[in-house]
Specification:
- The complex is a heterodimer of chains A (about 170) and B (about 575).
- Chain A has about 170 residues and is of the alpha+beta class.
- Chain A has 7 helices and 5 strands.
- Chain A starts with 8 loop residues before the first helix and ends with a helix.
- Chain B has about 575 residues and is α/β, with parallel strands linked by helices.
- Chain B folds into 3 domains: about 70 residues, Ubiquitin-like (UB roll), CATH 3.10.20; about 90 residues, Alpha-Beta Plaits; about 350 residues, Rossmann fold (3-Layer(aba) Sandwich), CATH 3.40.50.
- Chains A and B meet through α3 and α4 of A and β7 of B.
Chain lengths: ~170, ~575
């Protein structure tokens, strides 16, 4: 992986990845724990990371990619600075979270789950996040927003956009 | 003997070995249970649910994986079972691109046949269907996920039999797709183009890259001298495309058919095989005498070559530098034959009919153009050749036997056995032992290297020397030998490796036999019998006794391993990267 900054953080990350693999290597069912830790490290599981795991663990890349795409918890795409999760579980959905999701897509100019071009936001639909009493619910990083209507969305997003400018 | 258990299937008492499946037990009672994803020895995973039966449990069970038990009562034919199978099949069909009329597998499609067998006269389910991009970037294999029924046979053969794993089952639920990682084209993966995935595909989701149009175009061009050459394994399989029994020898009819298609000359790739033995045998003797890199490994199989380039680049110097027989012959056609006939090599168009899909990739290797033109212009599979013969309206089965053309038509029995696993080794031994002992040895049938065991080893006395030989076919077996070599644990002189299980007779370009045939008949063994009978019926059974080859050396190449031979008949290999990072998905 090529890193634009000067302090070799990509190499550092790769060293950490190798340590993660070393920790789990040889154990039965080691792949999924390695993928979890690798995703925590990188935020997602791009080709380069999967290739390192494949070579080090002697598991074909195709098999790894099959596992990564089977489980929704793994991501192939870089997440935004602010990760928005929209609950489309039953309780939220009947309370109109589908419309919230549509509004977020419009606001972020995305066609579905994904990351905005500036890398600031990523949108992800998910199942229950355990706050059904507040339905419909979204989370932005660790902040929870409940009892939403589509009209609330632009202001919430603006708050995070302004935060970026403020920094 | 394993313990037998007694069960009843549809009221019929059956004794079946403990551990066998309901499907196997039903076969013993002559009860047919329909299957779709099941392919004996390759894919036994109960994925498609077509073979469901009632074993008295709450849910219907997949017969192909459900083990028999003492006293079990199985019902294979009840309204519940029939309805379940039918609904399953209708659901599969509802998301299948049903362009049967224009499908390469029309009339040889396991899904089509099953729909007929299960009397599906309507598909009740309509709704969303998947629409995928067809991957036709590979020179050898076209992958059309719109026709895929997710049986996973291709995944299994690629992963378990070949240890290539270029494709896998990705995503989940309705989005499930058999594809390469990151939706890369097969072209950008370690796919070796062996085409075993095509041979196991029940439908038209995997097929060869069709090059027929290029051949028709060349044949119609009055300025071109169009010659064709046919590999050993084609002649014992092409008859299957015309309804002849598996293992029918069709050499004469095949030649006659190709002449009628309009080729100016029909040559035998076996001549290239004899030439390979002369060059490779010489290479082996030199390496043994001069302390060269051993074991020497054969280089005829282009699937195997790509496999070693991806997986064992550190061992490339073990490979023989010999080009494969088809490429050698192509180079000789465009040099020696061109000169002899006074034809400009630019005007010669060489077509090869091969049992192989990897040959399509091989002919496009830029280094394989000794005369400045590609040694072989187009390679087509046995199946494509049969399609051309059908399209031309030639009645194959009533053709007379005709003979290959001079000067590349009289090859030996040693050459024809190249088509079966162990054949190159046996042919090489016939020549090398004679050359090393200076005698015309009569014991020429090296049975230890024949047959379908995954890895075969033999020790052969040649004067003072004991030649140690090993043969592997199927890339999982090749991997075992290569690991031994890498660890320094293999003290063989000579190793033969063929990418496809069984060798070229079971190549990825051969006629496709459906599961119902493959589950009952050992197709490889039948085709191999025909190959060995071609050998037995040939009066000359040693490559160095081929008069045409002798003449070729006298008139043109001087001697095996000469400078000229190296220019025309030898090549080099290079490491290939697995999944280059600049490659992105095709969707």
């Amino acid at each position: 992986m090529t890193c634009k900054c000067e302090n070799n953080c990509a190499d550092q990350k790769e060293q950490e990845l190798l340590k993660i693999i070393e920790k789990h290597k040889g154990k039965k069912g080691a792949l999924i724990p390695v993928l979890h830790d690798a995703q925590d490290l990188y935020g997602y599981l791009p080709l380069q990371v999967q290739k390192i795991i494949s070579e080090q663990m002697n598991i074909p890349l195709a098999e790894i990619y099959g596992v990564v795409t089977f489980y929704t918890q793994f991501s192939l795409h870089k997440k935004g600075k602010y990760q928005i999760r929209v609950c489309l579980g039953t309780a939220c959905y009947v309370k109109g979270s589908g419309k919230i999701y549509e509004e977020l897509k419009k606001e972020l100019n995305l066609s579905g789950d994904g990351t905005t071009e500036d890398g600031l936001f990523s949108l992800e639909s998910c199942r229950c996040i355990g706050a059904c009493g507040l339905a419909p619910v979204i989370m932005i990083n660790d902040d929870v927003y409940g009892e939403l209507t589509p009209a609330d969305i632009p202001e919430i997003i603006k708050k995070y956009r302004d935060r970026k400018q403020g920094q | 003997m394993s313990k037998m258990v007694t069960l009843t299937i549809d009221g019929i008492e059956v004794k079946a070995p403990e551990g066998s499946t309901v499907l196997e037990a039903a076969k013993l009672a002559n009860i047919k249970i329909p299957t779709l994803c099941y392919l004996k020895g390759i894919n036994e995973i109960g994925a498609c649910r077509i073979c469901v039966v009632d074993v008295g449990a709450k849910n219907l069970q997949a017969a192909c994986v459900y083990p028999v038990a003492e006293g079990m009562k199985v019902i294979t034919n009840s309204p519940k079972v029939r309805e379940a199978r039918r609904v399953t099949l209708e659901l599969i069909l509802s998301n299948h691109d049903r362009k049967c009329l224009t499908c390469v597998r029309n009339e040889n499609c396991e899904l089509q046949n099953l729909a007929k067998e299960l009397h599906v006269d309507d598909i009740r389910f309509e709704g969303k269907t998947n629409e995928y991009t067809i991957d036709d970037f590979s020179d050898s294999i076209v992958r059309d996920p719109n026709k895929c029924i997710l049986c996973r046979r291709c995944v299994s053969v690629c992963k378990n039999i070949q240890t290539v794993s270029a494709i896998e089952t990705n995503e989940r639920g309705f989005d499930t797709i058999v594809a390469s990682p990151f939706n890369m084209s097969l072209k950008d993966t370690p796919c070796v183009n062996c085409g075993q995935c095509i041979n196991v595909c029940p439908v038209g989701a995997l097929r060869e890259k069709d090059n027929i149009d290029r051949v028709w175009k060349a044949l119609a061009d009055p300025d071109l001298h169009v010659v064709v050459q046919t590999a050993p394994a084609v002649r014992v399989a092409i008859g299957e495309e015309f309804g002849l029994p598996i293992g029918t020898r069709c050499t004469g009819k095949m030649v006659a058919a190709l002449k009628r298609l309009g080729f100016d000359k029909v040559f035998d790739t076996n001549t290239g095989a004899d030439l390979t033995i002369m060059e490779e045998g010489t290479e082996l003797i030199e390496r043994i005498k001069n302390g060269g890199k051993l074991p020497l490994i054969t280089s005829c199989s282009p699937g195997w070559i790509k496999f070693i380039e991806h997986n064992y680049p550190d061992l490339l110097d073990h490979l023989s530098t010999c080009k494969s027989p088809q490429i050698m012959l192509g180079a000789i056609i465009k040099s020696y034959y061109a000169k002899k006939m006074g034809i400009d090599p630019a005007k010669i168009f060489v077509v090869s009919v091969m049992p192989c899909t990897a040959k399509k990739f091989e002919v496009k290797r830029p280094e394989l153009s000794a005369t400045g033109y590609p040694d072989v212009d187009v390679s087509i599979t046995t199946r494509e050749a049969a399609r051309m013969i059908k399209e031309a309206g030639i009645d194959f089965n009533s053709l007379p036997d005709e003979h290959f053309d001079d000067p590349m038509g009289d090859a030996t029995g040693a050459a024809v056995i190249f088509g079966a696993t162990g054949g190159v080794m046996e042919a090489a031994l016939r020549t090398v032992v004679d050359l090393l002992t200076g005698k015309d040895n009569e014991d020429i049938e090296y049975k230890a290297v024949r047959g379908l065991d995954g890895i075969k080893v033999a020790e052969v006395k040649a004067g003072d020397l004991t030649l140690r030989a090993a043969v592997a076919h199927g890339l999982a077996n090749a991997r075992k030998i290569m690991d031994q070599i890498r660890e320094g644990k293999a003290d063989y002189h000579f190793v033969e490796i063929m990418a496809c299980p069984g060798g070229c007779i079971n190549g990825g370009g051969q006629p496709i036999q459906p599961a119902k045939v493959r589950n009952e008949i050992d197709v490889c063994a039948e085709r191999a019998k025909a190959i060995y009978s071609e050998d037995e019926n040939n009066p000359i059974r040693k490559s160095h006794k081929n008069e045409k080859i002798k003449k070729l050396y006298e008139e043109f190449l001087e001697k095996p391993g000469s400078r000229k031979a190296h220019e025309l008949l030898h090549t080099h290999y290079h490491q290939r990267e697995n999944y280059p990072e600049e490659c992105c998905g095709i969707v």
